TrEMBL record, chains A, B:
<dbReference type="InterPro" id="IPR036388">
    <property type="entry name" value="WH-like_DNA-bd_sf"/>
</dbReference>
<protein>
    <submittedName>
        <fullName>MarR family transcriptional regulator</fullName>
    </submittedName>
</protein>
<dbReference type="GO" id="GO:0003700">
    <property type="term" value="F:DNA-binding transcription factor activity"/>
</dbReference>
<dbReference type="InterPro" id="IPR000835">
    <property type="entry name" value="HTH_MarR-typ"/>
</dbReference>
<dbReference type="GO" id="GO:0006950">
    <property type="term" value="P:response to stress"/>
</dbReference>
<feature type="domain" description="HTH marR-type">
    <location>
        <begin position="11"/>
        <end position="147"/>
    </location>
</feature>
<dbReference type="InterPro" id="IPR039422">
    <property type="entry name" value="MarR/SlyA-like"/>
</dbReference>
<dbReference type="Pfam" id="PF12802">
    <property type="entry name" value="MarR_2"/>
</dbReference>
<dbReference type="InterPro" id="IPR036390">
    <property type="entry name" value="WH_DNA-bd_sf"/>
</dbReference>
Amino acid sequence: MAEPRWLDEDEARAWRGYRRMFLLLNARIARELAEECGLSEPDYDVLSMLSDSKGRSERIKDLAARMLWSQSRLSHHITRMQQRGLVTREEVAGDRRGASVVLTKTGLKAIRTAAPSHVESVRRNIIDLLTPEQVTVLGDIAETVVERLATDSTSDRGTGARPG
Amino acid sequence: MAEPRWLDEDEARAWRGYRRMFLLLNARIARELAEECGLSEPDYDVLSMLSDSKGRSERIKDLAARMLWSQSRLSHHITRMQQRGLVTREEVAGDRRGASVVLTKTGLKAIRTAAPSHVESVRRNIIDLLTPEQVTVLGDIAETVVERLATDSTSDRGTGARPG
DNA sequence: ACCCGTTTCTTGACACGTCATCTACATTGG
DNA sequence: CCAATGTAGATGACGTGTCAAGAAACGGGT
């Protein structure tokens, strides 16, 4: 193999910084969420998605697709959340394979309580630290990368589609 | 609690985009690394750090601190990597509590093989998609957030008070 | 109707990370 | 020196995420 194009100084700074930021930021936000609300980030994401769904329920495959989770991951997670009373499973009319997740009263209360505190956490630990321009550029960057990855990729198991 | 300051459109776009980008980017890069080199990202990180250390070995506590990992995490991971022959443990002269991780010949070979392919992966999936300006801004953002999180190790939750 | 491939969801095994806890050693202060 | 406190590392339990495999139902072609 020919000598690869190693990252230059700026690129390495960005890449390492990005990874380090994720590590710390994720840990911090997860910890605050757990301490204040007793929820993990995945819990929060599921509840948040569900609370925006019509009827506060959604088919598992649709929810998984919307969240970019594998069905397997969602199924496992729902099982755990179900045991804590945050959601329930329900059959789907018209497709006996199907299953929906439904937000329980407890789950709704949990997300309603958690949301304000979570937003504050996000502001305090990243958004409010940045200039409006930086916020916009971060959005641009994410859009570019996501578009590229979402189109030529897979959400569940690897397709093995490899360039080169 | 008063009505929180919800994220505006740009902020929400940045935050959601960032999370989505991480989800997809991490999955993609991890998958390529696993398929091409048989390494996980944490494997790669440990090997990469070790290969830059003097003597290709480092004390566990120092390595953990440098990587921003908990000692426990590193200890667990080293156990798994040890079983695959990538590293070994070694006693430390002068402190009988201590232990070092040492890169094996196999581990060195693994990281040397993996590095070029990993850099290509990073380029293909993010760095080369961005303008130089975006790369710089990403580095700036990460620096800002990391600095804040690294210094402020104990949280000042609840008040919304922020150091100026 | 039946077969066959596909979709939807679940499950089990395993890798990974965190937390609390434990052991062993080191260091400090009486 | 000895007790108390602190530090280094390992470990077990548990929650989480991935993959492969399986079960059940769907749907199209014959």
